[in-house]
Amino acid sequence: MLKVGDRLPAGNLQEFIEVEGGGCSLGPNTFDIEKLTTGRTIAIFALPGAFTPTCSAQHVPGYVAKADELRAAGVDEIWCVSVNDAFVMGAWGRDQKTAGNVRMMADGSAAFTQAVGLTLDLVSRGMGLRSQRYSMLVKDGVVATLNIEAPGKFEVSDAETMLAQARSL
């Protein structure tokens, strides 16, 4: 399992692009994790699934609300990562009004989630292999903080905790 001081694993995430431009075409685009994190500070939070209750009511809205404060604390970008496809993440981003604040990054095949060792088996609930709920602050591709939730909890991966950590580094 990933820990503080580890470099993020190589790989890709996808994002649904709403407006063509800046080298990105309309629709799902694939992004290299290493390229996106090199020389930057990224707040990443991951959750079990798009449109799920805690994720939609608390987790994403908290980061949207704290986006300006996180940027003021030195965070270049905020990513929401979930084991969903880019189309679902794009629709969820529209629903949550994340544009300009949180990048909705799809880990459709759970490759990133498996590589960081933070999978959650929800097969018995009809959801398949998903991500545990966690957050991390990544500086130049290296994990500076890591907050992994206990099963069924939402106590340490929230935007307030991430903001306090970003301010202290």
From TrEMBL:
Reaction equation(s) it catalyzes: a hydroperoxide + 2 glutathione = an alcohol + glutathione disulfide + H2O
Cited CDD domains: PRX5_like
Gene Ontology CC, one term: cytoplasm
Boundaries of every Thioredoxin domain copy: 2-168
Active site: 55
EC number: 1.11.1.27
One Pfam entry name: Redoxin
Keyword Lyase applies: no
GO molecular function: thioredoxin peroxidase activity
Keyword line: Antioxidant, Oxidoreductase, Peroxidase, Redox-active center
Enzyme class: oxidoreductase
SUPFAM superfamilies: Thioredoxin-like
GO biological process entries: cell redox homeostasis; cellular response to oxidative stress; hydrogen peroxide catabolic process
Cleavable signal peptide: none
Family from the record: Belongs to the peroxiredoxin family. Prx5 subfamily.
Task of the protein: Thiol-specific peroxidase that catalyzes the reduction of hydrogen peroxide and organic hydroperoxides to water and alcohols, respectively. Plays a role in cell protection against oxidative stress by detoxifying peroxides.
Protein name from the UniProt record: Glutathione-dependent peroxiredoxin
Natural source organism: Roseateles aquatilis
